[in-house]
Amino acid sequence: MKYKSHIFSSFKAKLIGLMISVTFISLLMASVGLTVVQVKSFRNSLESSTLSNMEILSFNLIPMLVFDDSDSAQRLLTSLKTRPAVKEAEVYRLDELEGLVFVARYPEGGEHYVHKDIREYITPEFFGEKHYLTHPILLDRETVGYLYVYSVFDELGRFQLEIIGTVVVIMIVCLLLALIIALKYQAILLRPLRLLVDVTEEISINKDYSLRADSTGNDEFSHLALGFNAMLDEIETHDRQQRQAKLDIRQLNMGLEETVKKRTVALELANQNLLATLDQLSQSKNKLVEQEKMASLGGLVAGIAHEINTPVGIGVTAVSHMGELVAQLESEHRAKTLRPQDLDRFLVNANECVDITFNNLGRAADLVKSFKQVAVDQSSDSVRTILMADYLHEILMSLRPQLKKTEHKVELQCAPGLKVRCHAGALSQILTNFIMNSLIHGFEGVDKGVITISITKRDQRISLTYSDDGIGMDADALSRIFDPFYTTRRGHGGSGLGAHVVYNLVTQALNGNVVAKSELSEGLSFEIDFPERENHVVK
Ligand SMILES: Nc1ncnc2c1ncn2[C@@H]1O[C@H](COP(=O)(O)OP(=O)(O)O)[C@@H](O)[C@H]1O
Ligand SMILES: [Mg+2]
Fold it and tell me: Which ligand sits nearest to residue 439's alpha carbon?
């Protein structure tokens, strides 16, 4: 509202100001012109009446000048009393020798002009209300003297005041009229504009773009309203589209949020499932690792069983043969046909049988002993001091069933008296795995392979190098050898856990490290390095 009244007050002020100033300027110009003309004509009339009076006076003065009768001239001038406007009058005679000679003056006795330049007023002149006039006195067209008159026309001043007063009054009346007209017309002129502003204001407050300005009529304002309405049409369409777009975006956002929530829930679920699966996988892996350990133990048991079978079989055969010999001896003894040489033969044979049985049972006992040691080591975590060379022999003995079937050789390089305190079970598992891998993978298609195992001890650290001269591995396969489940024999008995178990045993049970080196068809080697266990450490 403030905004509106401000607009209109300023517009109104401008309109009124314009009308009043136009009126004022035109009135002023007219008044000034009129006043100047009026004053001029009033002056002219004053001047001409003065002039005609002076002519008469001059005519009467001629004889007085001719006869140098200054008294009469003085008397004549005194008659000027009847003309209150005349303030001073002087008469001069023009003498050929003396020039201008003073004759008479009105009012009498005053200081006379005595001035050669009274003639400069031969053309009469006004200075405000003061009027100066010098009239030549002529006789037969010859100047005999001059009459100089100085008048003050009070009425001219009054006239001027009157005329200015009238003009001022007229101007005031006209200005008032102009003001009234301006006030009246501004209301008429501004009404359509005010209506237009009302509409814009309502739109700006309520944002209702369906409103329209009144465009009836055929003046500039109705054209403006038409243009304004067209603009409103556009804005309304645009507004509608924008609202729709906003609505769409909001719906889209809501949909998006919903989708995101759903996806998040789904993801969380999937994540949980994944975690559970991962857990299961790690459990399965641990189980498999255990199985791998047990499997190598199982293989050991089978091998040992097979190995023991032979000496025990021989022992049984020898003992049964012995039984037969004893039975024969007994029957010969009962039949009393026993000869001394028969007894000698029996004794030789019986001794042989006992030897055979003794030897074979001894071998079986050895086998059982070494199996017991290796098997117990592999399935327990005990740390003990071993005589390395002997222990390596025992491990090889436990693998004899596998090695025996082939022409491969195992070379041991170990100082005979080398004693090492370590996790023996881990060591035997590691070497068993290496040897089995060489037999299965390294010597695939190789008839006479050589495996070399060398062990040295220096500064309480043990270095073990295992190598075979088999087919080896390429760089890519080598980089994955210790990965769990990496195998090239999946579906053919490979679990891919052997090398992984070795890695874990070296790094955890032996607290050392292992490096595998190989090139295709250049064999494979493992270098293991681990510290010897301190005496008091019992794990
Ligand atoms: N001595 C070796 N010579 C060549 N390749 C080998 C040797 N030892 C292991 N490998 C390769 O490494 C893979 C992984 O061995 P391992 O972890 O013991 O699993 P698995 O014996 O069950 O296959 C084997 O599948 C084989 O391809
Ligand atoms: Mg293996």
Answer: 1
Closest residue by Cα to residue 387 from 411, 415, 368, 366 = 415
Give pLDDT tens digits for 83-137.
888 988 889 888 888 888 888 888 887 666 555 577 778 888 888 888 888 999 9
* Alpha-carbon torsion, ordered 166, 172, 176, 177, to 10 deg: 30
Instruction: Ligand 1 pocket test: pick from 441, 446, 517 the residue with the most ligand atoms within 8 Å of its Cβ.
Output: 441
Q: List, as own/partner pairs, every contact residues 69-75 make where C-beta atoms lie below 8 angstroms and the sequence separation is at least 24, other chains included.
A: 70/103, 70/104, 73/103, 73/104, 74/104, 74/105, 74/108
Pocket test for ligand 1, best of 437, 466, 490 (most atoms within 8 A of CB): 437
- Tell me the ligand closest to 495's alpha carbon: 1
Q: Closest residue (by CA) to atom 19 of ligand 1?
A: 496
Coil, helix or strand at residue 221: helix
Cα of 190 vs its chain's centroid, Å? 51
Atom of ligand 1 nearest to the CA of 486: 14
Return d(Cα 359, Cα 319) in angstroms, integer.
12
- 3-state secondary structure string, 390-451? HHHHHHHHHCHHHHHCCCCEEEEEECCCCEEEECHHHHHHHHHHHHHHHHHHHCCCCCCCEE
The Å distance, Cα 433 to ligand 2 centre, comes to 6
Residue whose C-alpha is closest to residue 399's, from 297, 516, 293: 297
Task: Sketch out the chain's domains with CATH numbers.
Answer: 2-181 (3.30.450.20), 209-379 (no CATH), 380-539 (3.30.565.10)
Atom of ligand 1 nearest to the CA of 496: 19
Do 115 and 35 meet the contact criterion of CB atoms below 8 Å apart?
no
Predicted local distance difference test score (pLDDT) of residue 537: 44
Which residues have C-beta atoms less than 6 Å from ligand 1? 437-438, 441-442, 468, 470-473, 481, 486-489, 494-500, 524
Whether the CB-CB separation of 435 and 393 falls below 8 Å is answered with: no
Atom index in ligand 1 nearest the CA of residue 442 equals 3
Q: What is the mean pLDDT of residues 241-263?
A: 93
Distance CA 203, CA 201 (A): 5
- 87, burial (CB in 10 Å: exposed 0-12, middle 13-18, buried 19+): middle
Interval 386-406 mean pLDDT = 90
- pLDDT, residue 15, reads 75
Pairing of strands 384-387, 419-422: antiparallel
Q: How far apart are CA 372 and CA 389, in angstroms?
A: 18
Torsion of CA 179, 184, 189, 194, to 10 degrees: 110
**Nearest CA to 410 among 386, 426, 427, 394?**
394
Provide the token pair at 112: 């006379």
Give the residue, out of 487, 495, 497, with the most ligand 1 atoms within 8 A of its beta carbon, to mutate for a pocket test: 487
